[in-house]
Amino acid sequence: MKVSKSSSTSKTSKTAKAKPKITDQDTKKIFVLDTSVILYDHSAIQNFQEHDVAIPITVLEELDNFKKGNDIKNFEAREFIRFIDKLSAEHRLQEWLPLNGKNKGYFKVLMNESSDIDALTIFGDKNDHRILNSALSLKQEKPDNKIVLVTKDINLRLKARALNITAEDYETGKIQDVAGLYTGNDTIEDVSPAVISELYEKGECEPDKALQQTPADNHYFILKSFKSSILAFYNAAEKKLERVDKLTAFGVKPRNAEQAFAIHALTNPQIKLVTVQGVAGTGKTLLALASALEQRREYKQIYLARPVVPLSNKDIGFLPGDIKSKLNPYMEPLWDNLKYIQNQFAETSKEYQKIRDMVDLEKLMITPLAYIRGRSLSNIVFIVDEAQNLTPHEVKTIISRAGENTKIVFTGDVYQIDTPYLDSQSNGLSYLIDRAKNHPLYAHITLLKGERSELANLANELL
Q1: CA-CA distance, 288 to 280, in Å (whole number)?
Q2: What is the pLDDT of residue 80?
Q3: Cα–Cα distance, 284 to 412 (Å, whole number)
Q4: pTM of this prediction?
Q5: What integer best gives the mean pLDDT of the chain?
Q6: What positions does the domain PIN occupy (predicted)?
Q7: Fewer CB atoms inside 10 Å of the end CB: C or N, the chain?
Q8: pLDDT (0 to 100) of residue 2
């Protein structure tokens, strides 16, 4: 049988303790954090083990500009400022302060921006270059320590290396092997014909009859024998291998095995969290929306949301009109999918009218993600499109909003990142797929085949 992959805290005195003498200068490092790291993870300074952490004073100045607002980056800025305020309540930030926790290092704010090399003279006067000067100053002050600038800004890393400063990306929460990311399904060759017959006749069978080992919870399979094949699903609750039928979701029919798997997961009431990953044109958003409409009687509302990623780094405030007018351009792809589903039916049909009524009565709502902070979402299907543009913390925040009888769906393409400081390894969708796999409440499907049109497939394959 062949398996082929589809893929303890010490109490400090009122005067800060003197920094102990370092005995192993080769392994003890000082990490200098850029603003982008704090906005990505406000708890970042706690994640460098026994090493010391410092932030330039310029970073505090930049965080002051981010503290107001409802976006996740504003929350991260506020939380970090509160943490530093608490840490330095009885001390001066210019001194090395012990970080709370066992085997943790020390922390300080870097005030000095003077060194033999001046980044402002080389690159120009801007905050990024002041941060470089702080790292250069610390490197000159601490020649026996290894100074490492940590930033999610690729260009800043390149400039740092040009100045002979070691520079790294922030690795916490980063997926190491995106190419090997969990796909949610496998193809099993040379399965016994008796197993496939049993699945056709009974709808289920013991997994050890077809599989060499116990699969991940809610995993999908294409089982093949010499003359036939069947789609199957490992039911995590029942510990059974079950047949998957190609079901239609509100007029939308699956065109391949992966789409059938996606509809099965999206309409399965036992699965509360679903991710669907794939390139443009594979039907991610369409399948999620159609499946939600198919289950409209089981939930009070359907929410569709996507992160607002402004073009050319311009805030939506630059666009004319009220908030609805400003957001419409970003939500248009969701309306396009809704119109496609609606057009499967005649204008006089009850299905066509039902979608119109749901929008009018706000049973189906398209909304920006920023509006859900602080809410408890109960009895809804919540679909988050373009989830690859979210940070891991944003994904966690969304899931933590779930109340009783709520299903959350994330769709996106981990290789199509539109936001600065995120990549295929560090975005929230990749992080969620990697962390949530093999959980009984979770299922994932990677869609491989584009179904939008032959022309769209040409673009994906050749361009």
Answers
A1: 14
A2: 94
A3: 7
A4: 0.80
A5: 85
A6: 29-158
A7: C
A8: 52
> Can you tell me whether residue 176 is helix, strand or coil?
coil
- Give the DSSP letter string of 104-130: --EEEEE-----SS-HHHHH-SSHHHH
Structure tokens, 359: 């929008």
Tokens of residue 78, six digits: 């506020």
Burial 375-397 (b: 16+ CB within 10 A, else e): eebeebbbbbbbbbbbbbbbbeb
SS3 content of the chain, % helix, strand, coil (to 5): 35, 20, 45
Contact 450, 408 (CB under 8 A): no
Say what the pLDDT of residue 171 is: 87
Residue 86 sits in a domain of what CATH number? 3.40.50.1010
Task: Answer yes or no: do 152 and 281 share one domain.
Answer: no
- What's the pLDDT tens digit per position in 401-415? 888 999 999 999 999
Q: How many CB atoms lie within 10 A of CB 455?
A: 9
Residue labelled with tokens 């410092």: 54
Q: Which of 168, 200, 223 is the last residue of a domain?
A: 168
CA pseudo-torsion sign 205, 211, 216, 218: negative
pLDDT in tens, 424-436: 999 999 999 999 9
Locate 126 and state its tokens.
């801007």
Question: Rounded to an integer, what distance in angstroms lies between the CA atom of residue 146 and that of residue 137?
Answer: 13
What pLDDT score does 307 carry? Answer: 80
Q: What is the CATH number of the domain that holds 302?
A: 3.40.50.300
Residues spanned by the domain of 40 = 29-168
| Whether the Cβ atoms of residue 272 and residue 408 lie closer than 8 Å to each other | yes
Predicted confidence at residue 174, as pLDDT, reads: 84
Structure tokens belonging to residue 280: 């443009």
Residue 215 has pLDDT above 80, yes or no: yes
On whether the CB atoms of residues 162 and 129 are closer than 8 A, the answer is: no
Judge if 163 and 257 occupy the same domain.
Answer: no
Enumerate residues 6+ apart whose C-beta is below 8 A from 259: 282, 283, 287, 447, 451
Q: Tell me the two tokens of residue 168.
A: 């790294």
What pLDDT, on a 0 to 100 scale, did the predictor assign at position 428?
93
